[in-house]
Write a structure and sequence with these properties.
Strand content: 15-25%
Number of helices: 3
Order of helices and strands: HHEEHEE
Distance between the termini: 65 Å
Shape: elongated
Amino acid sequence: MHISQHAGQRMNQRGISRRLVDFALRHGRIEGDKHILDRNESRRVIDELQEELRLAKRALDKGGITVVEGGDTLITAYNLTPCARPSNGGHGHV
């Protein structure tokens, strides 16, 4: 998105970064031609991001996960943590 000279000056004066503007454009509620990220919207976003972070940590604890789908059907899901295997390669002899 192009930033007008006026908007760039005001952002600079008010300490509003481009990343913060992009964040408001993504998460703010739309009222006409405005994207408003007020305290209530900010709290809602924080709650959603905390839940996303919690889920990401659970996936990390599992070494990651794989989900397999076919069309609109979930076929299987599994952890990426490798299974424990016998040190002799599982052949039963040394």
